[in-house]
């Protein structure tokens, strides 16, 4: 590892080292800055000393480049062809789950369920891309400002890649390696889910479910785990068992952590009982329904006010799994919503550009769009909850919830009131303050032209503050998600995105021309105000 040692101020591939973030068997990770001062994380591998680690790094790059999920860091740069190879990825602010629990104590209640939900979603995205992480541990989950993020894909490999574990060794962290992997099985998605359950158990208790060090391996093989008597603990115990067929799925565990009563799906006609209904405290694995693939399925109904990042699972299966019979499906989840940041940013600029010409109307339109976006988000949450409760019904749930969109929008209007009032207060305050400065002559001259353009700038400033406050105001996380859904719905193709971009730029240009020719502001529905 001597070739991996870097000091503060050293340059690696054009990046200046600011400090060491960590090191392990597959490389060292540094906090770095590029020429513009933007900070990132750089993972360095000395290919001359460790060809296996270098090959793993290449896999890490391929794995992360194929993923688009908010709980998985993005690749920013990579150099894989030189003796000294590295990858630069998004720097996740915060601390590891291990450090977080050491400082603040174990997670509980809604915080624990939300942690399990987001990390499960990230792992689903990893598996949907055909990638196995192989090292899901408390040290490889960062507790970022937006929620937990799954990091360090140094051990990751695609399902069609040859294994890179050295002869006679098992890759992974003791206490977080599935028992079947310890017995010699190839690490797969099922083993990742076991490691995820062990990580959730750590978050619940503050210590590894099987301890640490070499003793953890024996306790893992002996199925020796003790968890507190809290919601979700029985499901976690089952998920950490040796019997793969008796392990509940990740969504089952999330549902149990939320304290939900779980209902098993209908069994095949050959099963002993058509259905089974159990309370959260179930412990008997024989009472659960098992699909032909060997994995239990309990639909998890997401809480109404929790935002989720869902991924669409791709049709791939692990070695040894059997195909499901027709009519028996893996639980489907809503696809990731495409991000339309550029279109939403342009829409915000349209509001800002229009404010000097029609300030009140611009705000009302922005508020109406925010309410509609939240209604769309409410509809998507209702569809997910219905599918989780009754199973996916192709189009029926979608049709019902679309018909109910007016109700969702009415509910959204009530929920958006705090953000609307905050946005109005901050926007009016900023605009009025700038307006007064212009009128007093402290900012621009006293000429009519200077006063007009100064007041126009004041209105634009107020609109900008109002837009930001509306987007990030109280309870507006779901509204932003709904806005992306709306933007994605009207721009499903690159051509439509380009067309909407042209429309927005045209609107901004027209507004700019209106300001240039000094059109008087239209205050409707308020009475006209004299500029002065």
Short summary:
This protein is an alpha+beta fold and 532 residues long. The protein folds into 3 domains: 88 residues, Phosphorylase Kinase, domain 1 (2-Layer Sandwich), CATH 3.30.200; 185 residues, Transferase(Phosphotransferase) domain 1 (Transferase(Phosphotransferase), domain 1); 176 residues, no CATH class.
Features:
532 residues; alpha+beta; Phosphorylase Kinase, domain 1; Transferase(Phosphotransferase), domain 1; 3 domains; 6-stranded antiparallel sheet; 45% helix
Structural commentary:
- The chain has 532 residues and is of the alpha+beta class.
- The protein folds into 3 domains: 88 residues, Phosphorylase Kinase, domain 1; 185 residues, Transferase(Phosphotransferase) domain 1 (Transferase(Phosphotransferase), domain 1, Orthogonal Bundle), CATH 1.10.510; 176 residues, no CATH class.
- It contains 15 helices and 13 strands.
- The N and C termini lie far apart (71 Å).
- About 19% of the residues have low confidence.
Summarize model confidence as the mean pLDDT.
76
Question: Which architecture of the largest domain per CATH?
Answer: Orthogonal Bundle
Broad structural category: alpha+beta
Helix content: 40-55%
| Weakly predicted, low-confidence segments | 157-169, 261-336, 388-398
- Would you state the CATH class of the largest domain? Mainly Alpha
Strand content: 5-15%
Total domain modules: 3
- The Cα radius of gyration reads 27 Å
Q: Helix-strand pattern, N to C?
A: EEEEHEEEHHEEEEHHHHHEEHHHHHHH
- Total strands: the figure is 13
Shape: globular
